[in-house]
Specification:
Chain lengths: 459, 288, 273
């Protein structure tokens, strides 16, 4: 006991002294350059090598079967906040395929929490210890990295390896700054209205052809005691029906409010919001509720529809046992004038850190990332359909992909979240949520938002 | 003579030196960093721009910050009642019951679980298919809704649900306190015919003063900084109506990338907590 | 203390029993839900009884998928070392502030106490920065040091209040017998403080064990990540397995509580003036 105490005292005293020396520096510098100390690399490499070692062993067996040459491969770290809650078996399947095709071992470091991810990226991205690959958020947050020269220009990778796998120009545009594409698509998601097929069949309903049919359908459901559409209460989710209804009226209206050329108080916007208000008042929508409640209510038929990214098919299958095409299917909200329907998409960026020692390796990995084998593995595990060459065996998913490719009847538009300045966006999201909770009127909401928009766009 | 005296003095400081060093290196340096950051505009990656008191001035004009401040005061106010009075009441009842150890273990149990586990359980229970459904079956169908999504009401829902996990440690401290006080003054008071209420307020509580001060100050500081429960249950929403200062700080810094502004919130929070605890601590030093 | 009439005692027993049932209900249902399958849990109500028995499947799932056991070993090291070191250093500081002749006691008290005052989130960036430079990032030493540091203020705070209650005569008479300050602390004060030391040891062990934010930020590799960080990586769609993993991960803190249980009864024997 006594010995332990003395040992502890000694240990803490030495360490404290060491830490003091270092922390003086940590408090003083604000924009630290990428200095590295030998002491730190020592311990860290030991850690990574360890994981790398075991993983290489796993993947080695698989690659032996395919007979491809994998000798060149090293290890590339891949940090992200997107795969935190994925099952280990999924990850092994996906990165095993990456290893097969590219020869590189992916060492994934998942972060389930934004603060830790932000901190870790912020403090390492200027350093050679930065991860080769990492996911980020598109829009202003990606722009910040671009402006500081922290991410690689991936235009050549797009030109040579990504476009020809069937990724649309619109996705590249979402990552383009000054004519250069700075990210590859980690995921491309299409937002569609899911409906519970059992409920639709029960009341003899079919997918709506016109907006009026859509409203009628809601009315039928409502009169039968089913809540037509579920809203979720996540703080960012306020824009989902806002953009859907605006685009159903006229996609130019949507684009106009995003870039500030049309005022939120414009009479056409007011008109759409009145339609929405009317739908809210008729209880076509649930109150915004917890996401797990939305899914539970949808699966047991208390709610008939929800507007979600198309990969939710996979989620509803795994977590609720609903089979796409049988228990659940999708449609896109019809346009009010019967014209083109709008599919909103979102794309999460996958970047290469410019200062990373693994930069070249990471670029090599990206060359293989969009090959059908790899993307098929992604699709099988998570439902992602990032390229058009993915083998989709579900007709329900194929239907959505066909719609996205059908330029005569559908148009792809980047969702609201990444399309308007972020400070204004956050403000709008809060106001929209307030509106959907029935705590503000159309007029109140729009004039409050416009006041903020005036400040943002400098009108 | 003088030399050995000064050596002796030096020796006494050795006792506090490690603790002071640890705290200075880890925490005081951090608050200095935050203080400095609060005068800058910084998105985490670009150059920092000095903006003087701008972050602070903007905060006090921001209605979200004021909501957050109000919510913090609500949390602190209720914690004074709920984390002081309730555990004390439980402790008194437990020491007077027949199965003290059993009760103590049951009421402490949730405190051994992590906040994440507790939050997860509470979220399941508070989701529509949990408690609201049961209340609905008891004849209040209008209450079947997501309680955590009702602006301003959700703060109180979270405060009440927090009792389940927050009670244990304070109760434990109070039970120890109650068990150990000298019984002679109590017997004397009983002979003089003091009522139960008087007995406690006049005799027992003053005897437990040290324990009460510890629990009070600890609860006060913790409720000022409350974060985990809210983050798991509502993330401060809907539309930032259930944020407290710690959440606002987190939201501004890590979600909205306004690190300067987040630091300013942290500094405001720190100043308030230092101010409040200073008087408590000064009182406890006055007696020396 | 005092006498309680039989009638009051029965009423108290009844009230506490009802409350105890309420208290244990969430845990009871958590345990019940561990027997459900993933889809069954998601579709059904939290209160429903399990239809089948997926307990074994869930157990296999958390063993293979969550890999929490490695995290539990790491956490055991961090929480045990962190709490013990903090108790040692905190006790020394508390003793000095309460009983030794140092100047500006209140100032020193405030300096140490300030560690609990600041909102914890502000520590992330500066400490990450220092750790990256010193090579403490993603190391066991780094985690132990941090947990030691963050536990010290609370230990010092509780023990100082306890030591303050011990009469000076006691230490002065020991001094006349030739005991040094350190001997007085070890032989007289520390044994007296068995109960409060047990409480702080338990509470700080529990705190370190349950910490998520710092464990997640200051580590990267699976070998170093503490248990809560591993737990947070689990698939949240699989709630029954999640609940099971959470409860399994909480067992050490519960055992530790039971282990220390009898020490709490020793009470603050010398508090109160």
């Amino acid at each position: 006991m006594k010995l332990k105490r003395i040992a502890a005292l000694l240990l803490s005293a030495t360490v404290a002294a060491g830490a003091l020396a270092g922390c003086g520096g940590s408090g003083s510098g604000s924009t630290q350059s990428s200095k590295t100390e030998d002491t730190s690399t020592g311990t860290e490499d030991a850690g990574t090598e360890d994981t790398a070692g075991t993983k290489t062993a796993d993947a080695g067996e698989e690659s032996a079967d395919t007979g491809e040459a994998v000798s060149e491969g090293g290890t590339v770290e891949f940090w992200n906040d997107k795969m935190a809650n994925m099952e280990q078996s999924y990850l092994d399947a996906i990165f095993g395929e990456v290893k097969n095709v590219s020869g590189y071992t992916i060492d994934m470091v998942p972060y389930p929490d934004t603060a830790s991810y932000q901190t870790a990226m912020q403090q390492t991205i200027r350093d050679e210890k930065a991860p080769g690959l990492f996911t980020w958020w598109s829009g202003p947050q990606l722009q910040t990295l671009v402006e500081n020269g922290l991410v690689e220009d991936l235009t050549p990778v797009w030109d040579n390896y990504i476009y020809n796998e069937g990724v649309s120009q619109g996705v590249a545009d979402a990552f383009t700054f000054d004519g250069k594409v700075y990210a590859a698509p980690w995921s491309v998601l299409y937002n569609v209205v899911f409906y519970n097929k059992t409920v639709f069949d029960q009341y003899g309903l079919k997918e709506p052809e016109t907006f009026d049919e859509f409203l009628q359908l809601c009315e039928t459901l409502k009169s039968n005691g089913v809540t037509p559409i579920a809203l979720k209460s996540d703080s960012w989710a306020g824009f989902i029906w806002f953009q859907a209804l605006l685009a159903a009226k006229d996609v130019e209206l949507y684009k106009g409010v995003c870039d500030g050329s049309i005022k939120y108080t414009d009479e056409r916007i007011v008109e759409v919001m009145e339609i929405w208000k009317d739908m809210l008042d008729k209880d076509y929508f649930s109150l915004p509720i917890d996401w797990s409640d939305v899914r539970a209510a949808f699966s047991n038929g208390e709610v008939a529809m929800m507007l979600e990214p198309h990969v939710e098919f996979t989620g509803m299958r795994n977590d609720y046992g609903m089979t796409e095409g049988e228990d659940i299917d999708s449609f896109v909200v019809p346009a009010m004038d019967g014209g083109k329907r709008t599919i909103f998409f979102e794309a999460a960026p996958l970047c290469v850190a410019s200062n990373s020692a693994q930069k070249e390796d990471a670029l090599k990995v990206l060359e293989s990332w969009y090959k059908p084998e790899v993307q098929n593995a992604f699709h099988a595990q998570s439902g992602y359909t990032n390229t058009s060459k993915v083998d989709v065996d579900s007709p329900a998913v194929q239907k959505i992909l066909d719609e996205t490719a059908d330029a005569d009847n559908y148009q792809l538009v980047l969702r609201f979240y990444e399309s308007t300045p972020d400070k204004l966006r956050d403000f709008v999201l809060d106001e929209l949520m307030k509106f959907q909770l029935k705590n503000s009127s159309v007029e109140e909401m729009l004039s409050t938002i416009q006041a903020e928009a005036d400040a943002t766009f400098g009108n | 003579m003088t030399k050995s005296f000064s050596l002796k003095k030096y020796k006494d400081y050795l006792y506090i030196a490690p603790a002071v060093l640890f705290v200075t290196i880890f925490f005081i340096s951090s608050i200095i960093y935050a203080l400095r950051l609060s005068f800058f505009e910084w998105d985490g990656f670009s150059e920092m721009t000095f903006v003087g008191f701008d972050n602070y001035l903007k905060l006090f004009r921001d209605k979200n910050f004021l909501t957050s401040l109000t919510n913090t005061i609500i949390w602190v106010g209720s914690s004074l009642v709920l984390s002081l009075a309730l555990p004390l009441l439980f402790a008194i009842l437990i020491t007077k019951s027949s199965w003290a150890t059993g009760f103590k273990n049951i009421f402490y149990f949730p405190s051994a679980l992590s906040g994440t586990v507790g939050g997860l359980l509470m979220t399941s229970i508070l989701s529509i298919y949990g408690l609201p459904k049961i209340v609905g079956m008891l004849g209040h169908p209008e209450l079947v809704r997501d309680w955590l999504a009702i602006p301003y009401v959700n703060t109180f829902v979270m405060i009440v649900s927090g009792i389940w996990q927050g009670l244990g440690l304070n109760m434990l401290l109070f039970i120890s306190g109650l068990r150990s006080i000298d019984s002679s003054p109590i017997e004397a008071a009983q002979i003089e015919g003091a009522g139960t209420f008087q007995l406690y307020t006049k005799v027992v509580f003053p005897l437990m003063k040290n324990t009460i001060v510890v629990v009070l100050l600890m609860s006060l500081v913790n409720s000022f900084k409350v974060f985990d429960n809210i983050w798991i249950m509502t993330k401060g929403g809907p539309y930032r109506t259930s944020e407290t200062l710690a959440l606002t700080m987190y939201e501004e810094s890590f979600i909205r990338n306004e690190f300067g502004r987040g630091a300013a919130v942290a500094i405001v929070l720190t100043v308030i907590v230092v101010f409040v605890s200073y008087f408590n601590i000064r009182n406890s030093f006055k007696e020396d | 203390m005092g006498k309680t009439s039989k009638k009051t005692k029965i009423i108290i027993n009844c009230i506490l029993s009802i409350l105890a049932v309420i208290w244990i209900t969430p845990v009871f249902f958590a345990v019940l839900n561990m027997f459900k399958g993933q889809v069954e849990y998601n579709k059904g109500s939290f209160w429903a009884l399990p239809a089948g028995n997926a307990f074994a499947d869930n157990l296999v799932y958390i063993r293979d998928n969550a890999k929490i056991f490695q995290g539990m070993l790491s956490s055991l090291l961090y929480a045990a070392c962190g709490a013990v070191f903090a108790v040692i250093l905190g006790t020394l500081a508390a003793y000095a502030i309460a009983h030794l002749k140092i100047k500006h006691r209140m100032f020193w008290f405030m300096v140490i106490y300030s560690g609990t005052i600041f909102p914890f989130q502000i520590y992330l960036i500066p400490i990450f920065r220092g750790y990256a430079k010193l090579g403490l990032y993603d190391t066991r030493q780094g985690m132990i040091l941090f947990y030691t540091a963050i536990c010290i203020p609370f230990v010092m705070f509780v023990l100082r209040n306890f030591f303050k209650g011990i009469s000076r005569e006691l230490s002065e008479s020991a001094k006349l017998d030739g005991a040094s300050d350190f001997q007085i602390l070890i032989k007289i004060f520390a044994p007296m403080a068995k109960a409060p030391i047990s409480v702080v040891l338990l509470s700080q062990f529990t705190f370190c064990w349950n910490d998520l934010m710092f464990g997640l930020t200051f580590t990267k590799s699976r070998e170093i990540k503490p248990v809560m960080a591993s737990l947070s990586l689990m698939n949240t769609g699989h709630a029954p397995a999640m609940l099971m993993a959470c409860l399994v991960a909480s067992l050490p803190t519960i055992f530790f509580f039971i282990f220390l249980n009898k020490n709490f009864e020793a009470g603050f024997a010398y508090t109160g003036k």
